[in-house]
Amino acid sequence: MNASAAPGPDVDPTVTVLIVDDDELTRTGLRTLLSAKPDLDVVGEADDGAEVVAAVTRLRPDVVLMDVRMPRVDGIEATRRLRALPDPPKVVVITTFENDEYVWDALRAGASGFIRKRAPSQQIAHAIRLVAAGDSVLFPDAVRQMAAGRPVRRDTSVTTALTGRETETLRLMARGLSNQDIAARMVVSLETVKTHVGNVLAKLGVGNRTQAVVLAFETGVVDPEG
């Protein structure tokens, strides 16, 4: 996860959060940790993915902190349902292991990133702030490890659709760099990077930068062994 990004000026200083986990102790622990952060407001909880859409419709959270493994409706399907809403919240999936096979599918479904359940509270809070600001929460080594075990369907149409600078932006996104870090690496303004990212998402037909990164690995634009 990149630690240098900060919420932009158009992001409300208070980020509202919905916690979704089938384990009550986990929900209570997360609520306690996050409630100690003055800029985070836990507006509700749910114990299964089946309740998520109704809870989001009622509470309108900015970010959903979602367990990826739940008994009835798991975090993958719940994320997919949320992404189908007219104005969906950002989703961060929480998992026991960084290379959980479920995580990749949750990222494909539209989650903005993932974090370990036992991560320090500051790291979890920072992940929430990042996705609320429009960034992603990706651990490059873990993402590459997950991608390395999956088949690649080579598709040159992905790079053909993008300009050279947009392809470079996508590859840097896949390395876990924030918009600010990409701007520094490419020696361009932050606004230029945001334009590149927006163009990448539009041209690839994906909903967020994490889905773009997943597509980049799956189509061979980024080599997980590279």
TrEMBL record:
It comes from the Bacteria. Residues 16-132 form the Response regulatory domain. GO terms for molecular function: DNA binding. InterPro entries: CheY-like_superfamily (IPR011006), NreC/VraR/RcsB-like_REC (IPR058245), Sig_transdc_resp-reg_C-effctor (IPR016032), Sig_transdc_resp-reg_receiver (IPR001789), Tscrpt_reg_LuxR_C (IPR000792), WalR-like (IPR039420). SMART domains: HTH_LUXR, REC. Residues 155-220 form the HTH luxR-type domain. This is DNA-binding response regulator. It comes from Streptomyces angustmyceticus.
